[in-house]
Amino acid sequence: SQKIEQNSEAxxxxxxKTATLTCNYTNYSPAYLQWYRQDPxxxxxxxxxxxxxxxxxxxxxxxxxxxxxxxxxxFHITASQPADSATYLCALxxxxxGTASKLTFGTGTRLQVTL
Amino acid sequence: xxxxxxxxxxxxxxTGQSMTLLCAQxxNHEYMYWYRQDPxxxxxxxxxxxxxxxxxxxxxxxxxxxxxxxxxxxxxxxxSAAPSQTSVYFCASxxxxxxxxxxxxxxxxxxxx
Lengths: 115, 113
Fold this sequence. Notes:
The complex is a heterodimer of chains A (115) and B (113).
Chain A: E1 3-6, E2 11-14, E3 19-26, E4 32-38, E5 45-51, E6 56-59, E7 62-67, E8 72-77, E9 86-93, E10 103-105, E11 109-114
Parallel strand pairs in A: 2-11
Antiparallel strand pairs in A: 1-3, 3-8, 4-5, 4-9, 6-7, 7-8, 9-10, 9-11
Chain B: E1 4-7, E2 10-13, E3 19-25, E4 31-38, E5 42-49, E6 56-57, E7 64-67, E8 73-78, E9 87-94, E10 103-104, E11 108-112
Parallel strand pairs in B: 2-11
Antiparallel strand pairs in B: 1-3, 3-8, 4-5, 4-9, 5-6, 7-8, 9-10, 9-11
Protein backbone atom coordinates (compact mmCIF):
# COMPACT_ATOMS: atom_id res chain seq x y z
CA SER A 1 0.00 0.00 0.00
CA GLN A 2 1.04 3.61 -0.46
CA LYS A 3 2.56 5.29 2.53
CA ILE A 4 4.10 8.63 3.47
CA GLU A 5 6.18 8.71 6.60
CA GLN A 6 7.31 11.66 8.63
CA ASN A 7 8.93 11.39 12.00
CA SER A 8 6.08 11.54 14.47
CA GLU A 9 8.40 12.47 17.31
CA ALA A 10 8.99 16.17 17.84
CA UNK A 11 12.31 17.58 16.73
CA UNK A 12 13.89 19.84 19.33
CA UNK A 13 16.79 22.03 18.27
CA UNK A 14 18.60 25.07 19.53
CA UNK A 15 18.19 28.49 17.98
CA UNK A 16 20.70 29.11 15.22
CA LYS A 17 21.12 25.45 14.30
CA THR A 18 19.88 23.82 11.12
CA ALA A 19 16.72 21.75 11.43
CA THR A 20 16.34 18.80 9.06
CA LEU A 21 12.99 17.08 8.63
CA THR A 22 12.48 13.89 6.67
CA CYS A 23 9.67 12.70 4.43
CA ASN A 24 9.84 9.13 3.14
CA TYR A 25 7.35 7.52 0.82
CA THR A 26 6.69 4.05 -0.54
CA ASN A 27 4.77 2.80 -3.55
CA TYR A 28 4.39 6.28 -5.00
CA SER A 29 5.86 7.92 -8.06
CA PRO A 30 5.10 11.54 -7.25
CA ALA A 31 5.39 14.20 -9.88
CA TYR A 32 5.72 16.89 -7.24
CA LEU A 33 6.24 17.19 -3.56
CA GLN A 34 5.14 20.09 -1.42
CA TRP A 35 5.97 21.23 2.10
CA TYR A 36 3.51 23.06 4.33
CA ARG A 37 3.75 24.68 7.73
CA GLN A 38 0.91 24.34 10.23
CA ASP A 39 0.60 26.31 13.46
CA PRO A 40 -1.71 25.10 16.25
CA UNK A 41 -5.35 25.87 15.51
CA UNK A 42 -4.64 27.07 11.98
CA UNK A 43 -4.71 25.72 8.46
CA UNK A 44 -1.57 24.62 6.64
CA UNK A 45 0.42 27.25 4.77
CA UNK A 46 2.36 26.41 1.62
CA UNK A 47 6.14 26.76 1.80
CA UNK A 48 7.88 25.08 -1.13
CA UNK A 49 7.24 22.83 -4.09
CA UNK A 50 9.82 20.60 -5.77
CA UNK A 51 9.35 18.62 -8.96
CA UNK A 52 10.58 15.10 -9.66
CA UNK A 53 13.28 16.36 -12.03
CA UNK A 54 14.63 18.85 -9.49
CA UNK A 55 17.17 17.81 -6.89
CA UNK A 56 17.03 20.88 -4.70
CA UNK A 57 14.96 24.01 -4.17
CA UNK A 58 15.70 27.01 -1.95
CA UNK A 59 13.71 29.88 -0.55
CA UNK A 60 15.40 32.20 1.92
CA UNK A 61 16.38 29.99 4.90
CA UNK A 62 14.51 26.98 3.57
CA UNK A 63 15.91 24.21 1.41
CA UNK A 64 14.18 21.11 0.09
CA UNK A 65 15.78 18.11 -1.58
CA UNK A 66 14.02 15.37 -3.49
CA UNK A 67 15.63 11.99 -4.12
CA UNK A 68 13.33 9.81 -6.22
CA UNK A 69 15.75 6.89 -5.96
CA UNK A 70 15.71 6.90 -2.17
CA UNK A 71 12.04 7.98 -2.22
CA UNK A 72 12.84 10.70 0.23
CA UNK A 73 12.59 14.46 0.66
CA UNK A 74 14.56 16.45 3.21
CA PHE A 75 13.43 19.85 4.46
CA HIS A 76 16.06 22.09 6.00
CA ILE A 77 15.67 25.30 7.95
CA THR A 78 18.98 27.06 8.44
CA ALA A 79 19.66 29.52 11.28
CA SER A 80 16.46 28.35 12.95
CA GLN A 81 14.49 30.72 15.16
CA PRO A 82 11.85 30.16 17.85
CA ALA A 83 9.30 31.54 15.33
CA ASP A 84 10.02 28.48 13.15
CA SER A 85 8.41 26.27 15.79
CA ALA A 86 5.44 24.59 14.11
CA THR A 87 4.37 21.33 12.51
CA TYR A 88 5.72 20.73 9.02
CA LEU A 89 3.77 18.58 6.57
CA CYS A 90 4.97 17.02 3.37
CA ALA A 91 2.47 16.27 0.63
CA LEU A 92 2.76 14.30 -2.58
CA UNK A 93 1.10 15.16 -5.86
CA UNK A 94 0.65 12.17 -8.10
CA UNK A 95 1.00 13.30 -11.69
CA UNK A 96 -0.66 16.06 -13.65
CA UNK A 97 -3.62 14.59 -15.46
CA GLY A 98 -5.41 17.87 -15.90
CA THR A 99 -7.55 17.27 -12.88
CA ALA A 100 -7.28 18.92 -9.50
CA SER A 101 -3.98 18.56 -7.70
CA LYS A 102 -4.95 15.91 -5.19
CA LEU A 103 -2.48 15.96 -2.37
CA THR A 104 -1.65 13.05 -0.10
CA PHE A 105 -0.27 14.35 3.19
CA GLY A 106 2.10 12.91 5.73
CA THR A 107 1.20 13.19 9.40
CA GLY A 108 3.71 15.96 9.98
CA THR A 109 6.70 16.55 12.24
CA ARG A 110 6.55 19.07 15.05
CA LEU A 111 9.61 21.30 15.29
CA GLN A 112 10.45 23.09 18.52
CA VAL A 113 13.23 25.68 18.41
CA THR A 114 14.50 26.77 21.80
CA LEU A 115 16.68 29.68 22.85
CA UNK B 1 -8.33 39.53 0.02
CA UNK B 2 -9.76 37.35 2.73
CA UNK B 3 -8.38 34.22 1.03
CA UNK B 4 -10.26 31.11 2.15
CA UNK B 5 -12.85 31.47 4.89
CA UNK B 6 -14.84 28.79 6.68
CA UNK B 7 -17.97 28.95 8.78
CA UNK B 8 -18.62 28.00 11.46
CA UNK B 9 -15.36 27.81 13.42
CA UNK B 10 -16.73 25.41 16.03
CA UNK B 11 -19.78 23.22 16.22
CA UNK B 12 -21.12 20.50 18.49
CA UNK B 13 -23.67 18.09 17.05
CA UNK B 14 -25.60 15.20 18.45
CA THR B 15 -25.50 11.88 16.66
CA GLY B 16 -27.96 11.89 13.78
CA GLN B 17 -28.13 15.65 13.37
CA SER B 18 -27.24 17.29 10.09
CA MET B 19 -25.21 20.36 9.27
CA THR B 20 -23.49 22.19 6.43
CA LEU B 21 -20.01 23.65 6.50
CA LEU B 22 -19.44 26.60 4.22
CA CYS B 23 -16.18 27.41 2.47
CA ALA B 24 -15.69 30.59 0.48
CA GLN B 25 -12.69 31.82 -1.51
CA UNK B 26 -12.14 35.18 -3.15
CA UNK B 27 -9.14 34.27 -5.31
CA ASN B 28 -11.14 33.08 -8.34
CA HIS B 29 -9.67 29.60 -7.96
CA GLU B 30 -11.07 26.77 -10.05
CA TYR B 31 -10.28 23.94 -7.67
CA MET B 32 -11.60 23.50 -4.16
CA TYR B 33 -11.14 20.71 -1.62
CA TRP B 34 -12.45 19.48 1.70
CA TYR B 35 -10.10 17.65 4.11
CA ARG B 36 -10.44 16.26 7.56
CA GLN B 37 -7.56 16.17 10.01
CA ASP B 38 -7.41 13.66 12.84
CA PRO B 39 -4.58 13.03 15.32
CA UNK B 40 -2.03 10.60 13.91
CA UNK B 41 -3.84 10.41 10.56
CA UNK B 42 -2.79 13.53 8.78
CA UNK B 43 -5.01 15.42 6.37
CA UNK B 44 -7.32 13.23 4.30
CA UNK B 45 -9.23 14.36 1.24
CA UNK B 46 -13.01 14.02 1.52
CA UNK B 47 -14.30 15.54 -1.71
CA UNK B 48 -13.02 18.02 -4.24
CA UNK B 49 -14.24 20.11 -7.14
CA UNK B 50 -12.55 21.04 -10.40
CA UNK B 51 -14.99 23.81 -11.19
CA UNK B 52 -18.44 25.26 -10.66
CA UNK B 53 -21.08 22.58 -10.80
CA UNK B 54 -18.63 19.66 -10.47
CA UNK B 55 -17.68 17.49 -7.52
CA UNK B 56 -15.68 14.29 -7.09
CA UNK B 57 -14.91 11.84 -4.31
CA UNK B 58 -11.64 11.85 -2.46
CA UNK B 59 -10.11 9.34 -0.10
CA UNK B 60 -12.80 9.32 2.63
CA UNK B 61 -16.12 10.47 1.10
CA UNK B 62 -18.59 8.24 2.99
CA UNK B 63 -21.08 10.11 5.14
CA UNK B 64 -20.47 13.44 3.39
CA UNK B 65 -21.98 15.28 0.47
CA UNK B 66 -20.77 18.41 -1.28
CA UNK B 67 -22.03 21.04 -3.66
CA UNK B 68 -20.36 23.74 -5.76
CA UNK B 69 -23.19 25.86 -7.09
CA UNK B 70 -21.03 28.97 -7.29
CA UNK B 71 -17.35 29.11 -8.17
CA UNK B 72 -16.41 30.83 -4.94
CA UNK B 73 -18.30 28.51 -2.57
CA UNK B 74 -17.88 24.85 -1.67
CA UNK B 75 -20.31 23.33 0.81
CA UNK B 76 -19.74 20.17 2.86
CA UNK B 77 -22.81 18.46 4.26
CA UNK B 78 -23.22 15.85 6.95
CA UNK B 79 -26.69 14.33 6.62
CA SER B 80 -26.60 12.19 9.76
CA ALA B 81 -23.62 12.95 11.93
CA ALA B 82 -21.73 10.14 13.65
CA PRO B 83 -19.12 10.32 16.44
CA SER B 84 -16.54 9.07 13.88
CA GLN B 85 -16.98 12.39 12.10
CA THR B 86 -15.57 14.30 15.05
CA SER B 87 -12.61 16.04 13.47
CA VAL B 88 -11.16 19.31 12.27
CA TYR B 89 -12.30 20.12 8.74
CA PHE B 90 -10.25 22.22 6.37
CA CYS B 91 -11.23 23.69 3.07
CA ALA B 92 -8.61 24.58 0.48
CA SER B 93 -8.45 26.03 -3.00
CA UNK B 94 -5.93 26.16 -5.82
CA UNK B 95 -5.69 27.79 -9.20
CA UNK B 96 -3.91 25.19 -11.32
CA UNK B 97 -3.87 21.43 -11.59
CA UNK B 98 -0.98 19.33 -10.43
CA UNK B 99 1.59 21.89 -9.41
CA UNK B 100 0.01 24.84 -7.68
CA UNK B 101 -0.03 25.31 -3.98
CA UNK B 102 -3.23 24.96 -2.04
CA UNK B 103 -4.56 27.75 0.13
CA UNK B 104 -6.22 26.53 3.29
CA UNK B 105 -8.93 28.01 5.42
CA UNK B 106 -8.69 28.29 9.22
CA UNK B 107 -10.63 25.10 9.86
CA UNK B 108 -13.86 24.04 11.55
CA UNK B 109 -13.68 21.98 14.72
CA UNK B 110 -16.64 19.62 14.81
CA UNK B 111 -17.57 17.43 17.76
CA UNK B 112 -20.29 14.82 17.43
CA UNK B 113 -21.58 13.44 20.74
